């Protein structure tokens, strides 16, 4: 888009005509990740001061959707997939396959740009971690998390998510 703007300018700061022009001039790619995996990652990176995963989840639930950190805020409230027509949606866990396709579509030499991903190993690790962390939560916390992320679970195919049940 030809208009000059600072890197931190929010899309909402433009009028509707400018937004349509900008969105029409870009290839829009959305990277999505299972919301439960995002919580695990945030906890493991020390994003909260909670001593246990269960208390971290309770802090997230207590903060609510509107006060949530972007690290664990529901994706639909961050990227507006119902309003923005994304050209590609890339699922975490299929990065190598999907990024290879995107780079090829952009006319770039895939092998020289794409780092080695071990999607299978990452998937197995998160599957094991999810099982361990999910078992720490109370039934009420599990239900509240499913409700907290209900729109993400409806918008994206996280069929293997522990929160989908």
Describe this structure in words.
One of its GO terms (biological process) is dermatan sulfate proteoglycan metabolic process. Its EC number is 2.8.2.-. It comes from Lophotis ruficrista. It is a single-pass type II membrane protein. Its main location: Golgi. This protein is mostly helical and 165 residues long. It has one domain. It has nine helices and two strands. It has helices spanning 16-25, 35-44, 53-63, 75-79, 95-105, 110-113, 119-136, 139-148, 150-155; strands at residues 29-32, 88-91. Strands 1-2 form a two-stranded parallel sheet. α3 crosses α8 (139-148). The longest helix has 18 residues, at 119-136.
Q: Total helix count?
A: 9
Give the SSE string: HEHHHEHHHHH
Strand numbers in spatial order across the main sheet: 1-2
- Please give the number of β-strands: 2
Residue runs with pLDDT of under 50 for 5 or more positions? none
Distance between the termini: 42 Å
The gross shape turns out to be: globular
Task: Describe the largest sheet.
Answer: 2 strands, parallel
Q: What structural class do the secondary elements suggest?
A: mainly alpha
Helix proportion of residues, in percent? 40-55%
Would you spell out the secondary-structure blueprint of this structure?
Blueprint: H1 16-25, E1 29-32, H2 35-44, H3 53-63, H4 75-79, E2 88-91, H5 95-105, H6 110-113, H7 119-136, H8 139-148, H9 150-155
Parallel strand pairs: 1-2
Helix pairs in contact: 3-8
């Amino acid at each position: 888009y030809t208009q000059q703007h600072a890197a931190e300018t929010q899309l909402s700061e433009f009028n509707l005509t400018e937004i349509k022009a900008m969105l029409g001039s870009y290839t829009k790619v959305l990277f999505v990740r299972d919301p439960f995996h995002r919580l695990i990652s945030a906890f493991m990176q020390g994003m909260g001061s909670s001593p246990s995963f269960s208390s971290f989840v309770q802090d997230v639930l207590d903060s609510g959707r509107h006060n949530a950190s972007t690290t664990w805020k529901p994706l639909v409230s961050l990227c507006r997939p119902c309003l923005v027509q994304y050209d590609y949606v890339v699922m975490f866990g299929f990065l190598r396959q999907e990024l290879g396709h995107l780079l090829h579509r952009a006319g770039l030499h895939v092998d020289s740009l794409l780092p080695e991903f071990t999607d299978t190993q990452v998937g197995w690790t998160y599957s094991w971690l999810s099982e361990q962390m999910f078992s720490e939560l109370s039934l009420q916390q599990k239900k509240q998390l499913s409700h907290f992320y209900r729109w993400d679970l409806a918008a994206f195919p996280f069929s293997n998510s522990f929160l989908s049940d």
